[in-house]
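seq:
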Amino acid sequence: MASTKNLQERVVLRRTTWILAEFVILFLLLALLARRAASPGEDRGATSAWLGTLALVCEAWFAFVWMFDTYPDNLLPEEELPALDMFVTTADPALEPPVITVNTVLSLLALDYPDVGKLACYVSDDGCSPVTCYALREAAEFAALWVPFCKRHGVGVRAPFMYFSSAPPEIGTAGDEFMESWAFMKSEYEKLVTRIENADEGSILRDDEFAEFIDTERGNHPTIVKVLWYNTKSTRTGGEGFPNLVYVSREKSPKHHHNFKAGAMNVLTRVSAVMTNAPIMLNVDCDMFANNPQVAQHAMCLLLGFDDEIESGFVQAPQKFYGALKDDPFGNQLEVGFKKIGGGVAGIQGIFYSGTGCFHRRKVIYGMPPPDTNKHERTGSPSYKELKIKFGSSKELIESSMDVISGDVLSQDISSRVEAAKQVGTCNYEAGTCWGQEIGWVYGSMTEDILTGQRIHATGWRSALMDTNPPAFMGCAPTGGPASLTQYKRWATGLLEILISWNSPILGTIFGRLQFRQCLAYIFIYVWPVRASFELCYALLGPICLLTNQSFLPKASDEGFRIPLALFFTYNIYNLMEYKECGLSARTWWNNHRMQCITSASA
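struct:
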């Protein structure tokens, strides 16, 4: 029987002052444009018409962009909570050390959930590293100790490296037993780290359990699927079980394009479908651990708490980072962006999908539209033949998709599904199907995450923002300038690919169900790479004027000078107050604007 208590509620946030400030800035931008358009080269002090015209074009762009910048106690009984498949992706053991992946996996295995038998964790290793697989096997053994310890003592942060980075909490006179357990667990974790860091690939391959990795290459190997922990083994943990743990390395061949992370996510979706087929899926990057042990229950409040499921096609947690440098000198923590832009679009059709820390409905990933809001019913279920064309030839996958569409998801023995999982993980399985287009993660952009979210919104679904305290997930942000610029370059390339392709949000609004204001929000993000030419051009006008003894701005004695002066101070004060409202320092504001100029000119 469904719970009669509220699982979530809507709260209206009043932003009258902020909206007024935004309109003041817009008015000043339009006033500057009007004056510039009226006399692009006739200002006193503006001695070159071409400089005035160039400034007009850049200022028109700034005004255009500014107009876009507007905007678990009550859960069901445990037998009614849906199953959850958790995905972790890693690609390179050198750049993403296995110890980091292990900590993320352990934090997921230790999540609070009424029935851990409904949880399963899948790790995608695109590097096909035997060391990563070995590390996960060792982590499964350690989890038999770690999970009961966390739940018995109410541990808040369940990534061991973070938990043991600080001194044990003060327990008082009755804490001797806990202190002994804490010291024992820390010792066991240090042993685990030592085994992983000292692991030798040659020694690992002599173990029959890792024979499948012999003669494999990173870019040329068959599908490897290994069940490293069955939930049935959890009787060893004294009744405090933890989820199934499955290692997946999809087939790679030099003759096939593998579509980067989107391809890996689609393989995980298919593998999990034929093994556990949970109706809800969580995906996280290997360096983003679960910081809140009740995050799955918080997500279920949003997925199950609305009267109409259309309101929560997916639930996205904001990205937050640990170990970040003070005052964000490289501008890569994006706190203001997530809070202001993310919180703003959450009030339209929903927050963007950011690629990690997101809970998806499996049927939404399968491309199913929401129920007709007028008829309150769906069209008839697709036939077996139609599903075969969409999902591929795997009988097990087709049957599991039929179960998801009908809402009749059944549990199954994953040990008997390994071969079926290997079949759907081959690199030619998607040929002639709809994977990467109508279903699954979308191909065609380096930023597959936001593109996939856009396709979900264009289907008619909404998304929900989950901002918990403590934060749901914590990740590791780049701590160097070159790494940050590389990330920005990848984002810029991917966003531009979407903007100028058939995946444009404008087409999603015309031919789909993407709301107009949500379309504008997507365009605001996608035009970010385009700003480089305008900002660089506008920044060069000053040096050009100094070298040629010209000017593109009115003299300080002119009345028209008040407009750009007022715009400069109003915009910067407005932006500074945004940072202060988010609890950030003025230095952080300065650093972020400095990096914004650098990335605009280079990414």
